[in-house]
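thread: overnight batch results

M.L. [08:02]
morning all. the overnight job finished for the chain we discussed friday. pasting input first so we're all looking at the same thing
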Amino acid sequence: MLTEEQKKNYLKSRGLRCPYCLSEDVTGISPLEADGDTASGRSECFACGKKWIDIYTLVGIEDYED
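M.L. [08:03]
and the structure it wrote out:
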């Protein structure tokens, strides 16, 4: 189970380092699922094999043109 310190450090790394072993060899392994005002998706570390769920909130918007 992740400690509060591991969670805090993971957020500080902006999700670029594994919260367990601190490796940068991490990737998202599922599509995002929206639920109300948040979205979530599973992530995995290839170095230690641990998996976790990232939770996202909308923070902005930009124009998009085809």
